[in-house]
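[step 3/7] fold_predict: job queued, chain A
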Amino acid sequence: MYWRLSGFYFFYFASLGALIPYWGLYLKSQGFSALQIGQLIAIIMATKIVAPNIWGWIADHTGKRMLIIRVASLLGAVAFTGVFLSQNYGWLVLVMIVFSFFWNAALPQFEATTLNHLGRDTHRYSSIRLWGSIGFIVAVAGLGILFDYIGTGGLPMILTLLFAAIWISSLAVPDVAAGHRPPEHEPILTVLRRPTVIALLLVCFLVQASHGPYYTFYSLYLTDHGYSESAIGQLWALGVLAEIGVFLRMHRWLPRFGARRLLLVATALTTLRCSNSR
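[step 4/7] structure written:
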């Protein structure tokens, strides 16, 4: 089961490693402005707010989590092939809305599936999730070298193959053995009023807001300053190497320090990283 779960993370984050650093460069090569590039990438993040809630509600009420993951992965891959039909801005907006609505549905449901399979051994999660980081590094570094020679024009085909690999890997993971559990009926507003939930959501909002410009314009910024695609890939991979180190130690740190302390340290280091990158 370890390798089945790890395989999904590998291909999902490999697709992320191809999409986030290089999609903006591809759009620029197709003549889109910085505003249009920002809007097309923002669609992916916007549907990330809506899609997991809708698909999560469906999963809770049907108990067929892996079926939802497989359907969402397949429809996401099929929807993305729309980029081959036209490079019109309005058409790409529609393609990215449909694609990301399904693509963003898969990972949250798979996270729940992984934790359900692990049961009481949740400390093993980090050793499975680190394969996602490895997939990201392989994609971002390997494609950087490739694009130095062929340019980013081949990115849509590479992404399509990776999205198809996500779907294929999902077929190897069985549904959670625990079966369907009835959803909790505590009103959402009651949950949202809790001070701890408000604080957590605020932290998540600020961290994601800081990543918006980073995901969208970092690669464009580097190309404007003379960096090659291979150098850009290596710089993206560098940060994820540190992530792998954290995952390898997380099963020891989490029981020892607790989630709250680790969250505070992580956000402090994120702030320090951003302040030193100016």
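[step 5/7] annotate
The first helix runs from residue 2 to 29.
The two ends are 44 Å apart (CA to CA).
exit 0
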